[in-house]
Amino acid sequence: MTIMFCFLLYLPAFGLLTGSAAMYQAFTSSGEMNISSCPITYFGQKYEKVYVSLDANKFAFCFNSLYSPGIQNDCILMSGGAADRGDLTVLTRKIPPGSGVHQLLPHLKHAGSCVNVIPLKNSQDDEVEQVELGNFGAQAILAIKTYSGYTHTEVEADSQVNSQTVSKLKFQISETNTGVIADVSGCRLSGVVYKTNTTTYDQDTCSAIICDVYGVARVVSDCGPMEHCQGDGSCAARNVCTVAGSTVIDINGKVHTVPDRCGYTLLSPGSIPGLKVYGVFQERRRKDVSFLNNVVLRLDGAGVKVSLEQGGRVKLNGDVLKLNATAQVFSGVELSKDKTGVTAKISTSNGMVFVFFDGDKALIQLSGTVQGLCGGSSKSFSGEKVAEYSSAGCEVPHDDTANSTINCDTQAKWCNLLKQAPFTACHNLISPEPFVTACTNTLCKYPAVDDLKCKLLETYTMVCSKQGNVKVEDWRTKTSCYAQNSCQDKFCSDHEFCGQKFYGGEPRCFCRAIFASKYRSESSYGEPTACEHSSAAVTLANCLLEEEGIDYSALHLNDQTCKGEMKDETHMVTFKFDSSRTCGTVVKANDSKIIYKNTIMTQNNSIVGHIYRHDRVHIDFSCFYNQPDIKSLAIKLKQSSVDQQITSGAWIYNLTMKAYTDPLLLGTIESSTNIQMNERIWVVLKTEGLDENVVQFVTESCWATNQPSPSGNLRYDLIIKGCPNPADDTVTIENNGRGPYNVFSFKTFQFTGLTGDVYLHCKVQLCVMQGGNCVPKCSQAGRWRRSIMSSYEDENPALITMAWTY
Questions:
Q1: Is the domain of 612 the same as that of 660?
Q2: 517-559, pLDDT tens digit by residue?
Q3: Mean pLDDT over residues 169-177, rounded?
Q4: Can you name the residues that pair with 363 across neighbouring β-strands?
Q5: Domain of residue 67, residue span
């Protein structure tokens, strides 16, 4: 490269710019000068420091560090002289009109420039030479003026980039005594320097590198976006593979029909080592026809996985990315998204792979070798199946009843429109035959819903446009295929797909056929009722509800404030209640069962006047539990307490008994407690773990024996059928049947003629609330009745035994 130069015709006091000094720095022998107030762009690289070193043979002005032979640096090396010191002054002002700078760089503006002035002096402080580095944005100039102290007959200026000479100029003293300037502007791209206002062509990349007059470089490729350079200056079309519905049209134009709902290798390592592209297929409205569901790109060596999914969602190693029409690079993959779909591009020195996916079809373009289904692999589909992307049972065939509304001849006639105008504009570029075959195969098996007929024609026009930049004019008008509402940014769950209920309708999520079949066969909307102790939940599929025109948000339980909650990920709607929020649940009981019942129904406010816009819904669901068994527990009086866990069917609870010496229940009876005859004691029986809104605790009976066995020969009754023994006025009972605990008291006694332990036994039972309460109704005769339907007199009670001695 040759640097342009000219003599400075008008340089008052030689300064390229005039004005007061903005900065002043001095140095001896060498120095690091701060030029941040007037940075220099030297052949495309901006610098804010200049390193000056002086000796008798060479003056060096470098920008990375002080000059040292053998070290890469950007420098201007000039012939030396008697100077051994100098200083730096930065001036800023307008360029004088008509100056030599304008003759050298006529495109410069008159304002906004600065210059670094570096006078070089000898030890007697006489000026030997002055060097100026002028800043003009992306451009820069070098100006030189010598004085009488300069002893050589010429001045040499060697401009270097990365220690390699870019230009070497020699000026005679007669020139430099007046002053000269040279352009040190240029462009730098990938380490290569280019001259301003030049164009350099690279046959290896089929690209022109343009370095404009302002020192800004750009690369312009001769090849289109779907072409690749063959290394000799010529461009060739890339290989194209198309996946639409359940068909793969490989680079040779051969049509393959995907037989199931598994994941397959579309592209395996070829020109880009480690790159694999997979296609994952799933059913939609029919169980026996699959559609491309998502595309996965993997760079195994780099551990990168990019998933192009339904609705235009893109994930990188599992994380959702936010994309727009401006291409962004993530882990070596260039990604963008617009209203038509998502684009992924991977470029290396070996080749390029381009993938476009819009939720229905994928276009894969690539250079170099091709393997996998897109390469017309000789392997069978089973050979290309990928376990990682194939769900269990995905290969199991399903046979649906043939759709009687499909006329295959009519559909074939439709698909053959691709052989006619206006599609003929693409025939010289892409044969329509494989696309006609793919279209016919699909429409002969699958109903023409979700704008499928038009999407199959659109596949051909898309390939034509992206491959050869050919636009098929007015094809939508001539086929009445008007643009429909897009499924972009409509996210459905794994068991759903995006479609249209009717032509031109808003897109929504429909149930996949296999998922829905198990519910449709049972005429249900979702899973069976999940019952737990005192709670129940019903989970419905929103896509099944929408099939019937039911808006889940308009549904509620008996209590209208209890509505369904839908999970964003699964779109399953759950209605539930428990003991803390009963939601109007009705609890009933019979001799053996406890029944919890609620209803999912339509919200009343969905009815306006004499009309309503939702079908009336009435879904009853119930949970059945066995009545809780009555258990027994024994305790000696002088123990502080007994605690026993009891399991009775679905019921698990703790039953405890404690004895006290005072009514405030502060003095617990221990083994060392001295109990006197005719002394009143208080006994507390308590349950934990039961829902007291449904089940109450009742002490049915208590009695004393002189033996540990509750059926001992000697027996004295304290509580009979929930009431104090009317023959013993010392017995009291509180809170019986009112909650999870009760308290009774009595005065101690001994059996006549006997000494030693006296044992107290109690039967306790659980009472299910139903339309009344569980409080025993005591009469003077000591009888009682319950205001509930269930009966438990004959069931095995819980037995508690206490003993005391005197």
A1: no
A2: 999 988 889 998 898 877 889 999 999 999 888 899 999 999 9
A3: 91
A4: 242, 356
A5: 5-185
